[in-house]
Amino acid sequence: MNAEHYSLTPVILSGGSGTRLWPLSRPERPKQFIALAGDDTMLRLTLARTTGLAGCTRPVIVANGAHAGLIDEQVGGDALIILEPCARNTAPAIALAALLADDPAATLLVMPSDHVITDVAAFHEAIARAMPLVEEGWLITLGITPDAPDTGYGYIALGETLGEGVQRVARFVEKPDQARAQAMLDAGDHVWNAGIFLFRADAYLAALDEFQPAMLAAARTAVAQARRDGRRVLPDRAAFESCTSDSIDYAVMERARKVACVPVDMGWSDLGSWDMLHSIAAKDDAGNAADPSATLIETHNCLVRSDGVKISLVGVDDLIVVASGDEILIVPRGKSQLVKKAAEAAAARN
Questions:
Q1: Are 251 and 127 in contact (CB under 8 A)?
Q2: Which residues, including other chains, have CB under 8 Å from residue 326's CB and lie 6 or more apart?
Q3: Helices (H), 100-200
Q4: Tens-place pLDDT, residues 131-177
Q5: Global pTM value
Q6: Cβ distance 146 to 187 under 8 Å?
Q7: Which fold does the domain 3-269 belong to in CATH?
């Protein structure tokens, strides 16, 4: 499809609090504003991977209003910054972006701000495969080709083929238990739900009007009564607070009829735990992924991160050790799903 026939607006969702990577990631500075998987922050890497996309317009960033200063620090250019007055999950956040799109017929490329994609060429190719159906009003999601029976992700069951490399979504599957995850992996007709979407702004708003009319009405009012400050848009608090808090999956994607998926293998990770960061990080010969300042003696398969204090590990294996500010986390590898509990306990303590 010729780039002259459509515009593509990146919409980056940056409302998360990042507690699963506590203590480095905290509500006041969550993981999208931190360099975790490279030399640049997750947010800036997300913006960078839109470079080279045909028809790309200025990006839209939907962020927590408390992070306005962080956004200004990290995002230059003419990006439109929508500052949510409160958290209402992804469906209302995307509604704000769709309502404020420069072109009502623009294709929105909706992405979380804190994911890893190592094969950007494959990412761009998947977007190109989706565009013909997007122009016909389909709601598209990217599905990650699974390489393990992971129970931490939702899955998408693939149906009939609609075009080259594009299939109808048969159904969305909640996070499964181990046996069901293995069965879906063995069947070969399921993909992970990455939370990356492509659709025209008007198609998404039409779906909201059908399935979530009250949410759409509240979002419209929030935008109509918004304050503007340069490139910032501050939706009306009272109107936005009245939106139902719901994800795009539950609010729209699981209900709409014209929903399709582009399966893709693009080196994706949601970087949702310290274990996951260890799995994708560069490691030494002993399997350690550690800051250069760390001292490791007879230590194997550990992850060590610190933004200040120097850490020494001697004679230990399979630990995650993270020091940030006045907090230190020590947890066995394989148990990092418990970190959120530590973050909650620290918040209560403090």
A1: no
A2: none
A3: 120-135, 178-187
A4: 999 999 999 999 999 999 998 899 999 999 999 999 999 999 999 99
A5: 0.94
A6: no
A7: Spore Coat Polysaccharide Biosynthesis Protein SpsA; Chain A (3.90.550)
